[in-house]
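Quick one - inputs below.
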Amino acid sequence: MAAGFARDRIAVAALAVLILVLLSAVFAPVVTPQNPYDLAQLDILDSKLPPGAKSLDGKSYWLGTDEQGRDMLSAILYGLRISLGVAVLATVAALAIGMAIGLLAGYAGGWTDGLVMRLVDLQLSFPAILIALVLLAVTGPGVDKIVIALIAVQWAYYARTVRGIVLVEKGKEYVEAARCLAFGNARILFRHILPNCLPPLTVVATVQVAHAIALEATLSFLGLGVPITSPSLGLLIANGFVHLLSGKYWISFFPGVALLITIVAINLIGDQLRDILNPRLGSHYGA
Amino acid sequence: MLSFILRRLVQSLLVLFVMSLLVFAGVYAIGNPVDILINPQADQAEIARATAALGLDLPLWRQYWNFLAGAVSGDLGRSFVSNAPALHLILERMPATLELALTATLIAVVLGIPLGLWAGLRPDTAVGRLIMGGSIIGFSLPSFWVGVMLIMVFSVELGWLPPTGRGETVTVMGIQLSILTWDGLRHIAMPAFNLALFELALLIRLTRAGTREALGQDYVRFARAKGVPMPRVLRVHVLKNILIPIVTVVGVEFGSVIAFAVVTETIFAWPGMGKLLIDSISVLDRPVIVAYLLIVVLLFVLINLIVDLAYTALDPRVRLAGRSA
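Output:
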């Protein structure tokens, strides 16, 4: 009992942290001391200052500055917007696509189902990072390209989850009853079967958002993700990596901390959701 | 059994063929390498000559056919950049990647199983919780950032370990190995540990869950009731039964480890084939990219095949006929 309560408290704390992260990302232009991509607001004399240092005109750089004199706190909050935006967009799109394919495969059965599931099996037998690398090697870097790569990596998880549930649900009595009332297939699928897929899908989507954030950061770190004009947290870390060997750790360190806090918070919430909704999901790993 | 192996082999070949088609079609859709390789002042005739020399003027299906015919005979084309055979470039770098991946897997197994056992035996103690908390962080930490931080702590701040390269190597049967020299060990420690982190977290969780489940089973309770000492119960009754999923995961994950080595090698400038891939992508060196992808797909297909076969050998309950994958 005590363990359950402690777990709850951790999940509540994680939720609070995540809300804070989301708010500061959404309202980054309002809460940050400077717009890190407005060159007029940057002072090259403030280049590579350590955390807590003061600029000549008296303002403090709490997390230091990068090589262009950019305030790291501002850069991180703007980076969070891009990291979260890319991951959430890709997850929502992959969810929609995967759900549609899963519903179709599970409900239609037969060769449609066979074909879709072979494709899912084939894709899931390769790690996500490899598939994303292949796609980005083909398409080249860019925000739209990385969203497409993340969708391509994720859809199979949703398709598999939904298809499994549809197979179970479509044999149940309430579906039979709906059929006896001569409801159309579309109505049965969307009004009767789909609601049963939502709880486990929520869990999968939560875990996948965390994966997507980590994967996007990794790819951007490798230089295959977002462009330098709109750096996500991964690209900020890559930029700082150059200066790491000269001891200027903060340019890489703090974006990573922001990344870590976000991912841990989402994973803890995901764990809690799994316990509450308790779908019998297989563990899936990747990224 | 034989028909199963044959069916699996045919499936594997089919996967290889489909992947070669996808990889080829995909990779050959990226920009025109002639633009990058040739002097920007070159005239039309020179560009045409370079295109013809690289075989890029042929229709796409002809290019694929040439590529496939070459691939079957072990020729995956020449690097646009160094003009060396692409397959040779990849194979030359492969031992470094395999050494890194195997060392990482070893670290994950040697640390992960005992820690998982401990956490499974004493789930409510502080140490048990600490291990589980650590594994959650291991899952959540973006591993490329961990690599960056390892360099920061052990190379920059403490100066204990070198941040890049393989160090001194020893040639064993024509293969260069780092793990046999002290200098090489110092070089491989950080990248291998970094690469091991994710699998380590996975093995801890898997072993812990398996241990907890096994401890509640009748055969374990019976063994304890008749007075079998705990170490023997663990070794004979618990570990033996949870080893099947662990072996499977270690096998399947080995492919992921190789794929993820791309990231680790880039951070630590480890001269493996993953770093070669990233370098090749940035200069659009198509033959090398294609060769890397095909070699990795081949590795994957082999690993999956071996794991499937090992699975049946380990667990006689697995009914092959029922397995479609």
